[in-house]
């Protein structure tokens, strides 16, 4: 589950620092890495407080690999020159101007995209010597309904959506789960489905969907989508209201949709769609907590984002506030 901190007052910076430190500790990052994660959050949150409109920080474990990421999103006014902003001493507000330069030195991987409608910054921190992992090729976000930014304990929040990406011999496999409703009962259903998925994520998609159906029988059930990059082919299997979209830099095209049904209650016969894994594009899975209208007339800025920024951008700009929301973005 993604920690969200809305940076709408100065004290929210302290909430961001705490969220990043806790996320790093829970991810098992050793030594000084939790404090480094806290510094990343502090610098990004301070920048949002001083310079941005509608700033939000998202903190979560990396979707692949051993680490954490801190993503800052806002609605403008944008950064005039990213290169200048990354230079120590640069300032537009009379401060020392070392924020983005410090972030670049601390972060294992840093992605920045900006235009007048807003800026997105993803700072990722991994264990030294670890395999490079997916870098920006995978992005996720998973947010429970409700105001996380008011200081609620992360462990007290319940999310009926769940998302994961796993490397298997069969290919990089993603699962997106949207349990019926929200709250603790929905979170229990999502957890049961996730446990079943992680037990054998490399299984063929049709039997894997059937295994999730069995795991969800004693719960309220869920909509589920499975997406696998199997070499030159994308395999897709879904049931219920989970949306697949291909963003190719120029437009967004809807992919096949799963048939109506509830995994755990009335699963229709699973159908696996095989689609070409085009090199120019990002595959996006999202639950109905993200407004599907984003893909009908998408902003060009969104279409050019890498996966690590696209998923949180959709949550920030197109989320339904009264529902859990999750998204996965995958590059081939």
UniProtKB/TrEMBL annotation:
Annotated ranges, domain PPM-type phosphatase: 143-332
Entries under InterPro entries matching the protein: HATPase_C_sf, HATPase_dom, PPM-type-like_dom_sf, PPM-type_phosphatase-like_dom, Ptase_RsbX
Transmembrane segments: none
Gene3D superfamilies attached to this UniProt entry: Histidine kinase-like ATPase, C-terminal domain, PPM-type phosphatase domain
Source organism, top-level taxon: Bacteria
Protein name (database record): PPM-type phosphatase domain-containing protein
Organism per entry: Streptomyces marincola
